[in-house]
Amino acid sequence: MRSPQLREQFSDREVQLLSSLTESGPGFYGLVGFLLAVIAWGIIAYSIQLRYGLGVTGLRDYVMWGVYITNFVFFIGVSHVGALMSAILRITGAEWRRPITRMAEAITFASLLMGALMPVVDMGRPDRILNVLLHGRLPSPILWDILSITTYLTGSTLFLYVPMIPDIALLRDRFAQGPAWRRRLYTVLALGWKGTEEQRHRLETIMAVMAVLIIPIAVSVHTVVSWIFGMTLRAGWNSTIFGPYFVSGALFSGAAAVVTAMAAFRWAYHLEDYITESHFRRMGYLVIALGLIYAYFTFAEYLTPAYKMATHERGYLTAVFSGPYARLFWFTQIVGVLLPVLLLTLPRISWVRRLGDLPLFQPRPILAALATATGISFFLLISRSPVAAVENVDTIRTVALWVVFALGGWSFLGLLPIFHTWPITAAVVASLLVNIGAWMKRFVIIVPTLENPFLPIQNVPVIWAIYKPTWVEWSITAAALAGFVLIYLLFSKLFPIVSIWETREAVMEPHTVIRKEVSDAPGA
Amino acid sequence: MRLSRRAFLKWIAVLGGTASLPAGLNRLIRRKGVPALVADASSPGRLIHLDHLPDGPDGVALASAAPLPAQPALETSQRRWVMVIDLSRCDGCRACTEACTAMHFVPPGQEWIKVYKMQDNPAAAPYWFPRPCMQCDNPPCVKVCPVSATWKREDGIVIQDTSRCIGCRFCIAACPYSARYFNWVEPPHTPEELSRPYSTDWNYPHVKGVTEKCIFCPGLVKEGKLPACVQACPMGAIYFGDQVEDAVTNSQGETVRFSELVSNNAGYRFMEELGTEPRVYYLPPRKRIYPAPPAESEPAATGGNHP
Amino acid sequence: MRLGRNIVAFGVLVALMGYVLAASAAEPAKVILEVQTDPDGATQVVAKVVDDLGNPIPEVMINFKARMTFGWLQLSEASTDEEGRARISLPSSLRPQEVVAEASGETGTVQAAIKLREAHVFEPAVRPGRAILRHLSPQPGFISPYPDSVLPLVLGLVLGTIWAIYGYVIWHLVRIRSSP
């Protein structure tokens, strides 16, 4: 520790948990600078959009919602898990939750802010945003969105803030470092917390109430978001299960986001003692369960119209299953759902380790397989038009594609023993894939339906019928992501990202999982 | 019961005094070089003869009938504009689209009344299908608008107020007829367009970042004129009128009873199964009076195809 | 005497001729229009055609037209009876502003019009805005099976409950702050 003073005031455990607040290396400043640059670039892109109108995006009259609304649904989805997961874990008394609940709740807070910003970016006339208050129509689902997101943001802020009070009081009392504004902030936010019996009692009451209340609110928020689509007549959106479908997808992607955040903070702030492999294992089980629920909903959502192939639904179903969006859709299903679930499941199975002993799965054959697959893929890519002229070339291409798939599968199996050795890496890879897939799935929900309206698209330029996001949209999307990371990062610099008093409580309680794990871990 | 001339002239004088009455009130009696008939104020609903009436303008004798007690004037809410499009007359010339675009200064890229080429199934011949805004009675766009920028008027028109619209495009998503358009960029302006202050009746000048659509030309209708597309149709394929009054008129001056026109010709509403209750009726393209559109070019089945 | 007789005879002859001439030239001179509303709501339009002397003329074709908002609607044609009356019944669904009866003779057309309603200019009264929040029924003709008050009631109940609980939580926070 840099400051010997800190060492005097705090116990070793506290010093470790608070080090992230005091120590900021070049990595931190570099990351913040990078994020600010991305955000600045996004602001430039947005000002261009403000100046010239939404015409600078790829959106047109048919596909009039695109990347922005995708981001909106994605961020609201990610925001879901924080509050919901930590509320459920609190109510069920799962003690292992203690080091990760604050991380999850802060994800909710940061991504809700970004999610709520996205519809404003998408608006044609952001200067008239006050009309929503002046002339708001209650029957419009957008008003429901505004009401529910406001309610959820308030609730999740309370839910994040209240259990932080004892930690803020600790910082106020013993954190002499840092600028004056920071101490003032802690003083105000600590609410005069002294840890008296009455204060503790009130805090517990609040947490009990909020943990119960936040669950229906969180469920309702994503349900209402799905109704932006579900309340229209469009084929593909006109679905009764959109509410639960979106909620399940949100939980899946949100839980995965928590895994990513856990790994990032564990690595950056050296929290190995608090966020252990067992946390990743437990979160992995949660992600698996939520992924299976989500897969079930996807299956139910697509099978019923695909079986009937009604006139109006044929268009988007064909586009999604075998048309222009097939690659994206199957990617989200295989790489975004199936593969993560496998990655999280297989390393837990003991015989997987023995795969590494087989000669086929030695590094050299695996590398050879990967190289062959890459070569064939490259050949397929460059040889598209000339080879396509030859007869029977489709068969060749199909066979080549299957060979690539087989080699990919082989390499995947070869990677399994490695993932078995490093389960945390497996969990991080899986959760990143889940989140990439989740974003793409939102895109696949929104765009193909809009490209296949009831009336045929006629007499318009081809680019109006096919959506291609422009650099403005990508820049603003990147800025939103950077904003999310930045809010999250600054939060972790201002407040301890692992609850100090809650983990201490757990240590003092006997017979808890966390106690065993913490005491087993090598001393800090 | 006859009205004495003196009493009548006195009555006319009273009428002249109340000159604020609409001009239409005074032009009741038409006279074509023959003795005219005037109303008797004491027995409403009955017209009787009176010699040597003073001539008003246009050779129309001035007189007035008392309003009929049993037949009150149409109340303001009793207008329900309705459109009937006879697909057997539409030859796909797109004069309606052009007239609409010229009248409303519609920004480029938008076709408030769009002529589709449709083919319901491979066995049926293709036909032209003009699609204005359907002015639904159960309008999905109005339901979802967060700021009442679009609403249902008492006369059935789904109006659009671009001075209130926030540009969220939810209405475009909700509209199953693709009848709504968005000003993605600042629309090009002309002096004529900018000359009129904005009103929902005309829906211009246009501004950037708002939704626009066909609004049944309330400005023209208020002046007693047919909407621009109806006037412009050279085939008389588009009828427009008041459903309460039960009469629709086309560009060729044919006025027919709406209920008879629709019931005798198997009139239908487009995508009735969606329950939007459109105010635009179609007559099937049967016994066409023009050659069918060529079948081979753009695919035109429902379900959405890329051009 | 003889002269007088001749004069009388000539007078009678002239009178007879005049009568015959007058009778043969019974041109429709007036059309009297009358509207009767039956108790069941149907409207009868009766046109009576008389000549200059006020005698009814039978078997004249009367053409009935109705003035609608954008044009003239041909109703039907009817022939006058012995009493010189032709009648049509207006369908109850039809609401013309004016009905015209036209009788064509050799010397011209006699036309009579009766006004049934004012030709009014339509100005929509409703301009939704805040009115929606006050009394949620701004849009006549809007098909909705639900009472207008259901939505604000449900939303108000749910959100009110949630925000009341937030208030309870914040009250606890205030108590934490003010506790000794």
Overview of this protein structure:
The complex is a heterotrimer of chains A (524), B (307) and C (180). Chain A is mainly alpha-helical and 524 residues long. In chain A, 46% of the residues are buried. Chain A has 23 helices and no strands. In chain A, α7 (141-161) packs antiparallel against α10 (197-230). Chain C has 2 domains: 27-115, Immunoglobulin-like (Sandwich); 131-137 and 146-178. In chain C, a hairpin with a 4-residue loop joins β3 (61-67) and β4 (72-79). Chains B and C meet through β1, β3, β12, β13 and β14 of B and β1, β4 and β7 of C.
**Helical region count of chain A?**
23
CATH class of the largest domain in chain B: Alpha Beta
Share of helical residues of chain A: over 70%
Amount of helix of chain B: 10-25%
Topology, element by element:
The complex is a heterotrimer of chains A (524), B (307) and C (180).
Chain A: H1 4-9, H2 12-22, H3 26-52, H4 67-91, H5 101-122, H6 131-134, H7 141-161, H8 165-174, H9 180-189, H10 197-230, H11 242-269, H12 277-308, H13 311-321, H14 326-345, H15 351-355, H16 363-382, H17 384-388, H18 393-421, H19 423-451, H20 462-465, H21 471-494, H22 500-508, H23 513-520
Helix pairs in contact in A: 3-21, 4-5, 4-10, 4-11, 4-19, 5-7, 5-21, 7-10, 8-9, 10-11, 11-12, 11-19, 12-14, 12-19, 13-14, 13-19, 14-19, 16-18, 18-19, 22-23
Chain B: H1 5-17, H2 23-26, E1 29-30, E2 37-39, E3 47-49, E4 60-61, E5 81-86, H3 95-104, E6 114-118, E7 127-131, H4 140-144, E8 150-152, E9 158-160, H5 170-174, E10 180-182, H6 191-195, E11 211-213, H7 218-222, H8 228-232, E12 238-242, E13 247-249, E14 255-257, H9 258-264, E15 280-283
Parallel strand pairs in B: 5-15
Antiparallel strand pairs in B: 1-4, 2-3, 5-12, 6-7, 8-9, 10-11, 12-13, 13-14
Chain C: H1 2-24, E1 30-37, E2 43-50, E3 61-67, E4 72-79, E5 85-90, E6 98-104, E7 109-115, H2 131-134, H3 150-178
Antiparallel strand pairs in C: 1-2, 2-5, 3-4, 3-6, 6-7
How do you describe this structure in short?
Chain B is of the alpha+beta class and 307 residues long.
Write out key terms for the chains shown:
heterotrimer, A: about 525 residues, mainly alpha, about 0% strand, globular, C: about 180 residues, alpha+beta, Immunoglobulin-like, 2 domains, four-stranded antiparallel β-sheet, three-stranded antiparallel β-sheet, 3 helices, 7 strands, about 30% helix, about 30% strand, rod-shaped
